Structures are given as C-alpha cells and as structure tokens.
Amino acid sequence: MVKITAPGLVIREQSIGEADKLITVLTAKHGLVRAFSRGAKKTKSKKLAATSLLSYADFTFTKTRDAFSVEEALIKEVFFELRNDVQKMALAQYFCELAYEFCEEDFESEEILRLFLNALWLLKENKKSPAFIKAVTELRLMSLSGYMPDLVACEKCGEYETEYMYFSSEDGKLYCKNCVPSNFCKCISSSVVTAMRYVSLSDFEKIFSFTLNQDGLESFCSITEEYLLNKTQRKFKTLEFYNVIKD
Ligand SMILES: [Zn+2]
Questions:
Q1: Ligand 1 mean position, distance from CA 157 (Å)
Q2: If you placed Cys at 56, which of 23, 77, 162, 213 could pair as Cys (CB 3.0 to 4.6 Å)?
Q3: Which residues contact 88 (CB under 8 A, 6 or more apart)?
Q4: Based on the domain organization, do 94 and 59 belong to the same domain?
Q5: What's the domain range around 56?
Q6: Which has the minimum average pLDDT: 35-49, 79-93, 211-225?
C-alpha cells in the first residue's frame, strides 16, 4: 500500500453521495493529489473542516488499487474567513481553478504552492488590494510555469527602457516605440515594465513588496490577465465571476 504524508491546500471538493467527498489537494512534492474522504461530510467528522476548500492541512493519503483516500487530515491554516467577503472568495476560487489548470499529479509544485499560500494569506490579512494580489499571482504563476515573459529589453533593438514600452501578450515580448510590430501590443509606462520585471525575476520573498499608482496598477492588472488568458487559451468561470463582482 502506497502512503503519502504531505501538507497541502484543498483546491477542489466534490460531493460523493450522502457522506463522502472527493477532494483535490495541491502538495509541494507530489503536485495534485485526488483523494476520497469517506464520511467527511458528516458534521461530527474530524475531517470535515480539514478537507474543505481552502484548508491547508497535514494530510496522510493511502492508495489502495487505483485510488487515494484521506487517512488523516490535521489543519495547519484555514482561509475560511475569505468566505465572508464575496470579492475575496471569488478571487480565492479563481486561484484554486488556476492551481487545477497549471499543476498535475506527481509534479514538483513547491513554488506554486508557496505562491498561492502567500496570496491567500495577504488576501485574508488585508495586506494588499485583491487586484494587486491577483495580478502579481498571475504573472508569477506564468513565470513559474514556463511562460516567463521576455522583459529584458526591446526585442528588436535592445533598448532597455524608454518612457513608454509596448508589451505583446501574443509572444510575451517587449518593444520600444520605434520597433512595435503591430496594434496588438499594449502601451505600458516604464513603472509597469519595472513592476513586471520585478515580479517575474525577483526572489520570492520580495514579489509582493512594491507599489504602483492607480493608473499603473490598472494597466499592470489588465496586462497580467490578458497574458494569462492568451497563453492558456481558455475561459475561467471563476475569473468571469470575479470580474463581474469586483469593485
Ligand atoms: Zn526597439
């Protein structure tokens, strides 16, 4: 019998019959683990909270035949209070959908787990605005997942910085105003270029620690979302909901 012990974040839960559920947990070393949790929906179950969406817990999974089940789950941190705020909860659910999209089973996911845990913590503690947390998380996730944009300099002439640069979500490259290839590029200020470089390339500890003025933040947020959607070529229901209800 295979046994896995690992801390993980519950990113999806589905009901199975009256008492059981199937959960998907993002772990650092094993990526996504899908596991049945028997009796977890019963109100007296010790596993009820620990196997709920947005619980971060120490899990013990056992595998019999082809399926994992949750043998034990001990809560380390919960982000349940995000449920009291519709906008924050919508964003947290979008993060869960992103984790499901970008991670796989048996897939080293330490950095991505750390990113989502940090984003949820900042959201819960009101440390930064939801829009800011969303944009940084999207861009860093893309960078960790093999889609790091090429932000070193203008793709054609090598110009490092001008007052305004142009970013192409299509190819993830930067252009100066003399070299911009088409109308599909978005004009961004040098402060947004700096922010994008910072989030893609800095050490993890620093990625959320900068500020942008309101115009810069709006431009930064629209670029990270557009880039992510361009690369994934799919819709996210949770993102559409978030965009309807956000401030
Ligand atoms: Zn150029």
A1: 4
A2: 77
A3: 82, 123, 124, 130
A4: no
A5: 2-78
A6: 35-49
